[in-house]
Amino acid sequence: MEVVRDYDLVEELDRLKAMTDAGRRAREFEEYLGKRFRREQFRVKIDPKGGAGRQIDLMAIGKDAKYLIEAKWTADKAGVQEIGDLALRLRKMPSDVFGVLVSWSGFAQTVTTGVLDERPRQILLLTGSELERNQSLASLLEWKAQSLLEDGTVAFDEESGEIYNISFLLSATTRIVNQDNERSQSLTTSGGYHSIVFVRELPDIDWVPGSGFGVAVDIRLSIFDEQDLIGIVGKLHDLGWTTQDSWWSIQQATRNWHGCGTAEFTSVLSSWEERYDGLDEIHHTEEFCYVDAIDTGFYSLSGQLSAEELRIARSLHLSIQLSGFPVRSGKVEELCKTFHVDEPVFYRPLGEKSVTRKRPMERVDLEVVGYVLEDSRFEADEEDREWVVGVVARNPYFGEREAPEWWPDNLYEIDQVICPLRSWHPVRKPKERHHLWMSEWAWTTNVQAVRLLADWDDRPDDEDGPRIRIPLSSKNSAPKVKAAKRPERNA
């Protein structure tokens, strides 16, 4: 199931808010709700004849839930009288049917007592502000039903935490340093719409005993807007699907943003106005890709967001690659249950190895313009705690569509690349020369994960001192010390 907050639904709700004919608006509000439920794969009947010979507004029947729905769009808040009317209709319905009272203007303070008094018949309350904001009616109503059944609480979205607090998300253990010694978890490059993510590690799902290849699982997730996306990332975190070594990219027409860390991904994604400042060309849509490890494999999360205030989301796709069909598949089943995935989900055997791994045919020197740093808490000396684990280099094949066959496709529009190092070294012992050691890449359904492994050369002993382009010290510039012999540490 894919729920998409299409522009027609947004515009329709805006049109309803602007209407002055109350009777017509009430009728069209019912039609709007019916359309919303149908988008989420519910079978909907408008104005069916209900119990007690009275008329109800909507009946929505889904795979796991049935709702009898009364919709009101008036200036007054709904109260105990409306609860009583809906409860009377519910008594003539099967016991597994929930009542839903939708009031655009909200509810009076006494309404909570009315809902609790009508138990065991279950009535859920839905406000207009919740309709405008929440990721899906199915997930919202399920959360409300759970709160009512388990906690005896009439819950509203203002209390639900659906707008995820990103402070709970994992931050990256690494930082990117640019030429000005500025440190962050992201890098801005040139680029277009190529779904590429530079990763530090690329799990090889085929590195297992036995013949054959891995399997893929592709899931489309319900999403409306940017806040829903952040909530989905938060739920992936709660399910244990995120790590501190996640990597991601965001693409606009002429700019890309690459970075690491789950919390940083959501933060940079939300700061779109700041990212767009100074851009000459802004397309109406930006795309995003997120890659992380899971068990014996990895996955990508990709989709689109509108480049304007509404931040409408489309085409959220979760693509997983595993070493094989899991004997214990509860983790994927739990994910499908959490995100209300009703359409069939399959483990599909891959027809070839997931990861392509190639060595350059000749030496390719890298022009380093930045570094990827990580703290090592095992170092007693504070000056040795910061290590260089990767470099940012100018793309040696920038602008060349016909690059060597060992170079990953689609990198020609990106002017800088992130390369993890084969061997690490302390930040205060800089290396002068770096070269490409190996290129690796793997495709999920929509995303190319790229690992460009680099290495460094020792400085010859007869040279006067290290010639480094960038200051790497966390204070000022790197002290001029004789470079240690490699390897200091292997990745």
Key traits:
491 residues, alpha+beta, Trna Endonuclease, Chain: A, domain 1, 3 domains, eight-stranded antiparallel sheet, 30% strand, elongated, disordered N terminus, disordered C terminus
Walk me through what this model shows.
The protein has 491 residues and is of the alpha+beta class. It folds into 3 domains: 7-159, 3-Layer(aba) Sandwich (Trna Endonuclease, Chain: A, domain 1), CATH 3.40.1350.10; 167-172 and 185-356, no CATH class; 358-490, no CATH class. The chain contains 10 helices and 24 strands. Helix 1 packs antiparallel against helix 2. It is elongated and about 85 Å long.
Which blocks of ≥5 consecutive residues have pLDDT under 50? 1-5, 50-55, 461-489
Largest sheet: 8 strands, antiparallel
Q: Which descriptor suits the 3D outline?
A: elongated
What assembly state would you assign to the polypeptide chains in this entry?
single chain
Number of DSSP E strands: 24
Radius of gyration: 27 Å
Q: Helix/strand-derived class?
A: alpha+beta
Average pLDDT rating: 84
